[in-house]
Design goal:
Layout (H helix, E strand, L loop, with lengths): L10 H4 L22 H9 L8 H17 L3 H12 L6 H7 L3 H12 L1 H9 L4
Helix pairs in contact: 2-3, 3-6
């Protein structure tokens, strides 16, 4: 199977044929800014700290983003994942995120995609 697990539309809704007046449950990426956008943008735009190497500075930023993403509710994390995985024109946050190196971007997207599993583990008592 060559389709990405990060597509905005699940395969079953792509080929869904609807009658008049019907509307599917669409899982579309949104470019609507959330209240967390300013925090994410601030982390991405923050300068390196005094005496901090670039490697440590960007690792610190990645850790800050991961901590912020971990605190998001599952629906918000999923919506943010959809925005960042398939950036649309005019989405400032997605454009800034796209500027990260590929490995870092991939790790953060995988972490966002894992929100539902982390929530289930937390609900089960952390087993």
């Amino acid at each position: 199977m060559s389709e990405s697990i990060y597509t905005a539309f699940p395969p079953r809704t792509r080929s869904l044929r609807l009658g008049r007046g019907s509307s599917p449950a669409i899982h579309a990426a949104s470019t609507i800014a959330s209240s967390d956008d300013a925090t994410v943008l601030a982390i991405l735009a923050a300068p390196l700290q005094l005496g901090e190497t670039a490697q440590l500075g960007y690792l610190r930023k990645e850790c800050e983003l991961r901590a912020l993403f971990a605190a998001l509710p599952v629906p918000t994390a999923r919506a943010l994942h959809a925005r960042l995985a398939a950036p649309r024109a005019g989405d400032v946050l997605a454009a800034k995120f796209a500027g990260l190196v590929a490995e870092r971007k991939h790790r953060l997207l995988v972490f966002l995609a894992d929100a539902r599993r982390r929530d289930a583990i937390a609900a089960a008592g952390g087993r």
